[in-house]
Please model this.
Amino acid sequence: MEYPRVTAHMIRTSLITLTTLGIIVCLGHVSLVAQEPAYPVITGYAGVASVSVDTTVIDSTATQRVVAELVSPAIKPDAPHQYLVMVARWVNLFAVSGVPRNRVDIVVVIHGEAAYALLNNDAHRARYGYDNPNTELIQKISAAGVTLLFCGQTLAIRQIAKESIAPQCKVVLGMATAVIPLQLRGYAYVKL
Model:
């Protein structure tokens, strides 16, 4: 029996194939094809990647209560506020984790420099000369059940008219009079 002649091309192809198989074995169950993120509740912002997890600590039968103090300014003023995007991701993460929407209670209390991200479109355009890049995201997170509370002290100190803020926001006396009582009621606190 005569064996085929081994060429440099055959050796190179075999080495590439073996190297590729070795990488696949080393990676285990990691997919080599990127998957599209899931947007189960809030579309267009903060998709959730499909990830193989080892464990979960979330109890999908318990109500997930979060109060977020949003004080940081937008890093990119002409793009959606990074922390509003994060809140949208929380909503999508809870949904992907199997928590029913009626068991997610997120309250965002806006004050300080973050106030300007939640101006209504007309007020934002008058102040900055362009449309508010957060308008659609504010509508979507509000429609998903996120409560937006605006600090009345911020309105007074920064001389922002109540009529200038996004209509989805409700004004409270102050950040502290919203955040502290919610913490005392068991809401997890996150500063953004």
Observations:
- Residues 64-191 form a domain with the Hypothetical Protein Ychn; Chain: A, fold (CATH 3.40.1260.10).
- Confidence is low (pLDDT under 50) at residues 13-33.
- The first strand starts at residue 64 and ends at 70.
